[in-house]
Design a protein that fits this description.
Length: 283
């Protein structure tokens, strides 16, 4: 199998990317329209991979070894986590900030994302701390704090133009996923429902929790509905609760992810935007 290496990073000089690329002894190098560097037919031995990854990290660049010839046409679906993947914030942490509890909730969130805590139990604990908060706080978080991750919109535009469907599957909340579905023209969404009574959060989630297993099942259900295997999905995430759905996809993408996720992903984007996946897939 012929392997290529794609090197990219915001503001990283082309000469530095080339210097890293030569470590993989490529047959040729091609500068892509995005400014990324594709090194073709490289020596992807363990020692070369280790050297390239270390040099890329030092240069604040992303290095991806990928089978030659892979393109968006190989896929039918892009499945994305929401918090800290499609968007820059953890919504529950920002909601908690309205209660003066951000530090406490963020600590639990971080532990859960690193895989140190059971996700469902941690979400139940965090949501319980929100009891009594006016539901209008959710709108404030959406309007004042929610921002798309770098490269999100060009990435979505490109995958839609290529005919892929889009799924936003989140351990967060439908209040945000439904608004993003409308705003970004997403095809499918699935998330947790916060219970509201008399205009205030009760501190409970309605129905089952969207945990790692449910995220994986959601990708499977959407793929089945499309009549394709899960291997036709590109799956993006950042936390330990994304690993199961990433594991069944044909290409897993760790975006600004926790170490446990980066270590298991096919593509790790530590510095580039979400649209960097386009260069990995031949763009």
């Amino acid at each position: 199998m012929v392997t290529n290496l794609v090197l990219q990073g915001p503001g990283v000089p082309a000469s530095l990317l080339e210097g890293i690329g030569w470590l993989a002894r490529p047959a040729r190098m091609i500068v892509l329209p995005s400014g990324a560097l594709r090194c073709e037919d490289v020596a992807a031995t363990p020692d070369v991979v280790e050297a390239v990854q270390a040099a890329a990290l030092a240069a604040r660049a992303d290095a991806t070894f990928v089978a030659a010839g892979r393109t968006l046409a190989d896929f039918s679906l892009v499945a994305m986590d929401m918090d800290s993947t499609l968007i820059t914030i953890e919504c529950i942490d920002e909601i908690a900030d309205m209660q003066g509890l951000k530090a406490q909730v963020s600590e639990i969130t971080e532990s859960a994302m690193r895989g140190e805590l059971d996700f469902s139990a941690s979400l139940t604990r965090r949501v319980a701390l929100l009891a009594g908060l006016e539901a209008s706080a959710l709108e404030r978080v959406y309007e004042e704090r929610l921002r798309l991750s770098p490269g999100a919109e060009p990435m979505l535009a490109a995958v839609k133009a290529a005919g892929l469907k889009t799924l936003l599957v989140s351990g967060g909340f439908t209040f945000f996923t439904e608004r993003l579905k409308t705003r970004l023209g997403l095809d499918y969404t699935h998330a947790n429902v916060l219970e509201v009574e008399h205009g205030r959060l009760t501190g409970r989630v309605v129905g089952g929790i969207v945990d790692a297993e449910e995220k994986m099942r959601t990708v499977e259900r959407v793929c089945a509905g499309l009549g394709v295997e899960p291997r036709r999905a590109i799956v993006m995430g950042d936390g330990a609760n994304d690993l199961k759905m990433m594991g069944i996809g044909g290409l897993s993408v760790a975006f600004r992810a926790k170490p446990v996720v980066r270590a298991q992903a096919d593509v790790a984007l530590n510095f580039s935007g979400l649209d960097a996946i386009l260069a990995v897939l031949g763009g």
